[in-house]
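Re: export button greyed out
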Amino acid sequence: MSALLQFLIAGLKNGAIYSLVALGFTIVYAATGAINFAQGEFFMLGGMLGVLLVNLGLPLPIALLLAVVGTAAIGALFEVLAIRPIADGDPLRIIMVTIGGSVLLRQIALHIFGPDEVPLPPFTQGTSIKVLGAAIELQTVWIWVLTAIAMVGLFLLYRRTAFGRAMRATAINREAARLVGIDTRFMVTASFALAAGLGAVAGLAVAPLTQTAFDVGAGIGVKGFSAAILGGLGNPVAAVGGGLILGMMESLTAGYINPLYKDAVALVVLLAVLFVRPQGLFGGSGREKV
Amino acid sequence: MSWRTLRVAVPFVAAVAVAALPFVVSDTFLLKVFTYVGINVVVVVGLALLFGYAGQVSLGHSAFVGIGAYTCALATVRMHAPWPVAFAAAGIVAGAGGMVLALPSLRLRGHYLAMATLAFGELASLAFGEATPITGGVDGFSGIPFPSLGPLVIRSASGLYWLVWAVAGIALLIASSMVSLRPGRAMRALHGSELGAQACGVDVVGVKVRAFVISAVLAGLAGALYASVIGFISPSVFTVSASVTFLAMAVIGGTGSLAGPVLAAALLTLLTYLDALIPGISRQAAQTVQSLQADVYGLAIILVVLFAPGGIGAMWRRKSREGERA
Amino acid sequence: MARLGTARWCVTVLLLLVLSIALVGCSSASSSSTGSGSSGSSGSPIKVGAILSLTGPYAALGASEKNALELEVKRINDAGGLGGSQIEVIIEDDATDEAKAVAAATKLIEQDKVVAILGATGTGQSMAVRTVINRAGVPQISMAGGNAITGTFDPLVFQTPWPNSIIVPFVLKKMATDGHTKIAVLSDSSGYGKDGLAIITADAPKNGMTIVANEVFKPGDTDYSAQLTKVKNSGADAILLWTAGKEGAAIVKQAESLGLKLPMYGGSGQAKIEFPKGAGTAAEGFVFGTGKSLVPANWGAGTDEFKVVDDFATRYQAAYGAAPDIFAGHAFDALNIFADSVKRSGGDTSAAKLRDAIEQTSGLVGFGGKFTFSSSDHNGLAEKDLSLYKIVNGTWVPIQ
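Workaround output, generated via the alternate export path:
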């Protein structure tokens, strides 16, 4: 019983991280109609910048905040430099640019931070919380809190602000949005900044548990994308659902079948969903979501 | 000399130069390097068809190279099959894998195939490492024999070089005849506008699947060549980052061209061996180039897509059009 | 005019290409060689090839190895070489790439006519060159740690690092002495982890221990709840961790926060500073086994081993301004085993003679310990060359 509870806790912890990364995919997809293959690198950059700033002697909360803002700025800069010139063209070209960008960001991180793994201190010191024989690390609580804040914030941003309405309008129909006076180019930049910021939050939240390194982005990118596809690409709520379900599936596979098959779960789920139900679990009928 | 004759002359001179190389180069290391270039050319010719003509992105082609390599290794070492049989089997098995992957995902839009191939590539490299009884696991598979045609065993550096480039040449010939005939026109139509192509009666899915399967077969054959030339394979070679390298070669080489990707494959492969090509180069310089190699791939992909969407191929065509006009 | 110009231009470029390739072919290819016999020795130099990963993921390891090789070649040549002949080490970079390692081996053997190959840096590259080595019959001394190198026996291949096959039994014995009977094993699915696990499962019963939990994780995993929960519920009284990856630190940390307070043991994978640094307080008290030379004082002042390791460390420090790491040490051993064998063969460097001489190496003191090869053991190190360490205050101290 306590074992099952422990597996569920782990599933919810990883699922929350996948949700954050999946949200990044969803936001960029909504704005551009393309998959951002560099999303995982924003996860990596968040963690690495956090470590760098802490090592420079900044207090942890300020370092974390600056790391998120910094990663968001890098995301925006990447969009302005490399995506904007082709934003209205073939999504294939955007995909290619993000593939090139992910290689480049990873290499830059390697040159700056070196090849070794680096630690980030936990957000709060202390022993784990014991619940019915299972233990919850304090950092796990932080992951949940941050994920919840990010989601509520995103919801409010989208539903309650003029900026959010403009972003949604851009996602639904870029031409129409432009006609009613929305600066759609800025909206695409904003979506990259937002996606990068969410990736950085995820990367920072996990780093105290696992350490981080220049090459952690590719793996988490595939997981996040699998989660986004599982839920249904282009729908933020579905992305979160997909992330949590994927986390659970992995954790239960690791717990009851074999930990080595854990990574294969996401890949098999990804292929199965693509082949059988490309609109995702929570997507509508076969209609391609714009 | 007119431009038309040049179009015949250039490939001819290039073919003669490639074939004559072992007579002028005595350095075995250099010959090996150019042999590896040939192996990569075989893969990239397939990717040029897939990306440059059919407009599809694959991030999993090193998985097909791996499938071909392991098929060849298993067939020759475990089943004692004659080498030509093992070589053909490598292409067939990889092609079958390509078909299974392509049929469902090509009914979807481009980015879905990219992700499906990425997932496939990751799964394949997991499988190469974990299926120890079959693949030898992470320790690798050694003792793969040299290629042989009947009683003739090809073991010399120049023999291997000629074999690899013969395969590359045949692949290029088949590909270039394909793109100039009906299937190629259908593929190019796809790259322009899928909807338009469909309206003109092009079997869109069929064309895409065909391009994908052919590229998988070529990757499998390249894998068999790699296994036989090196004699040892391990999962660390057939990774997703190798797939990205192949894709970079195809992208930089340019769409709608075969010569461009071949040139790009040669140049990017030779980057790794700069120290062998430029005798006087300092170790430091070679090392710097080497550590910046992946940066070059990444940056080149971005720059080509942004500023020269046709890649090297388009530059050549532009030049050639200017030539026609002049 | 323009047309003609372009056409001529193209043909010229092609011709230049062919010409330059021919030129490159005639001049000898790159490769830095060290200590070619310019000083007044009589015989032609003895050429030995080294395949190192000077670029790519193992670049840091290869750099240390190159330093050590160059330092030792200079020392040997300054002292008059081997029986009057100078040594020339031709170093090739394999870029941590198996195909390039094979090309380098082919070039070294067929073109430079080296009498032996030192290397490669990595296990995969060391295994990859075997086909070439076997064809030429040239002996190889690898500096990579993989058990497969000498575990999958090849009469031509020797190895200098401490392999799992001696470290695992050594650590298991310590666990038994500490009174553990039910142990949990956590290993990764890389070559190092798999290899260690096979020996652990075979050897634990011999030490009176039962494996009550056998959990595997993948390099790159970030959550170990499943494995650690099963360990927790297995009733184990100690944990044996077998990994060389960065996951070690994260596992020890997560074990602590899940309330798993069992004594933990490990091997060479934990003998790098990133482990205690990454795991923090959770690593305190962790016990691992690896070579004695990790802390040279271990040998005891005055012993032959201490003198050799200390002398090497002093000269290395003086030449490069840093203490040698274990990889430098493994390269030091590879070259000295070679040099010692050439001396004993009376300068006969024909492939078969040299191989036999290397196999007859006996009691040679090096960085790794005292090397004694035999027709069935091409690693030549033993438990006497190992030591146990405990993590105290974020660094390791030898256990007496």
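Chain B touches chain C through 58 residues (CB under 8 Å). The button fix ships in the next patch.
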